[in-house]
């Protein structure tokens, strides 16, 4: 039985003051952390403040960077390394988000490098995969997603795969208000798990959590979470409001 995992991706929406206010509001909500794992991904400049606030309150909330450099250190102006975000209090990083793939032209090989860099530097990984609208309409959605999983996890062995969470985020559903139907999402999640099973065997594949992302809201989360292979949600817009994020986290009651 995989424990549900609800992760908020705050994107480039809040400065450190706004992030601090939001995490304080989330921390004031009653959450049964034995039943659900919770995480937040603030911007780089808010990581330290947010992780310190969580630590002071003693709640088991994961903190992720939204991205890291593939490089360890050096002359890479504007980049932020895995070691830097770890030192700032992050325990995880999101990688391969569609906004990184589409806007910043990050390809599968670079993302695979980043996955390795993150794991080498003690960060868990939330690896995002997902097809574009064109790919879905031309019937290659599952092939595209399975390919991204294989490439993103290339050379990640059995010793490290337990530190990876997958997130299936159809690009056409992110920030658009369009959600994949639970059946469509489940179909792709099942195919991702089959690919994981090919790579790591069925026992390990059963343990890996696969989150769904794309306009998840309090009113559609339960139907998604009822599906066998949907283990949680990576949430953008609805994670910016503590009340709606709390409803997502407490989707089970
Ligand atoms: C995301 O960016 O990961 C996301 C799923 O955004 P939204 O929930 O706003 O669609």
From TrEMBL:
The broad enzyme category this protein falls into is isomerase
Q: Please name the InterPro entries in this protein's record.
A: Aldolase_TIM, TIM_sf, TrioseP_Isoase_bac/euk, Triosephosphate_isomerase, Triosephosphate_isomerase_AS
**Main localisation:** cytoplasm
> Which Gene3D superfamilies does the protein's record reference?
Aldolase class I (3.20.20.70)
Q: Name one Pfam family in it.
A: TIM
SUPFAM superfamilies in UniProt: Triosephosphate isomerase (TIM)
Q: Could you name the active-site residues?
A: 97 (electrophile), 169 (proton acceptor)
User: Pathway, per UniProt?
Assistant: Carbohydrate biosynthesis; gluconeogenesis; Carbohydrate degradation; glycolysis; D-glyceraldehyde 3-phosphate from glycerone phosphate: step 1/1
Molecular function, one GO term = triose-phosphate isomerase activity
Q: Which CDD domains match?
A: TIM (cd00311)
Subcellular location as annotated? Cytoplasm
Catalytic activity of the protein = D-glyceraldehyde 3-phosphate = dihydroxyacetone phosphate
Q: Which parts of the sequence bind substrate? A: 9-11, 175, 215, 236-237
Q: EC number(s)?
A: 5.3.1.1
Q: Keywords assigned by UniProt?
A: Cytoplasm, Gluconeogenesis, Glycolysis, Isomerase
Q: Name one GO cellular component term.
A: cytosol
* Gene Ontology biological process terms in this record: gluconeogenesis; glyceraldehyde-3-phosphate biosynthetic process; glycerol catabolic process; glycolytic process
What does this gene product do?
Involved in the gluconeogenesis. Catalyzes stereospecifically the conversion of dihydroxyacetone phosphate (DHAP) to D-glyceraldehyde-3-phosphate (G3P).
Assembly, per entry:
Homodimer.
What does the sequence similarity comment in the record state about its family?
Belongs to the triosephosphate isomerase family.
- Report what the protein is called: Triosephosphate isomerase
